[in-house]
Amino acid sequence: MSNVPTPEETVAKRILFIMVNEQGLRAGDGMSPDNLTHDLTRHQIAPQEQQQAVDYAKEKGWLRIGPYGELQLTETGFALD
User: Fold this and answer.
1) Could you report the per-residue pLDDT of 7-42, keeping only the tens digit for each?
2) How far apart are the C-alpha atoms of 7 and 60, rounded to whole Å?
3) For 51-78, what is each residue's pLDDT tens digit?
């Protein structure tokens, strides 16, 4: 059995890359869903892929919803990038 990442995992890791390397976020920092959607669309990630990847990242504990509705990068998510 190979360890080929699922499409959701691949896009989720791209999201982490964008948040850390393009936006300069660190663990505990957040980004509004609208701003994230704008960045992901700019990277040609379709809306359905975006939602599946965000859900995947939340399930893995890489992202969480912050107190103001923002998507926060967790320590685990930050460490992956």
Assistant:
1) 999 999 999 999 999 999 999 999 999 999 999 999
2) 14
3) 999 999 999 999 999 999 999 999 999 9
**In whole angstroms, what is the distance from residue 77 CA to residue 64 CA?**
10
Residue type, 33: P
SS3 labels along the chain: CCCCCCHHHHHHHHHHHHHHHHCCCCCCCEECHHHHHHHHHHCCCCHHHHHHHHHHHHHHCCEEECCCCCEEECHHHHHHC
pLDDT of amino acid 2? 62
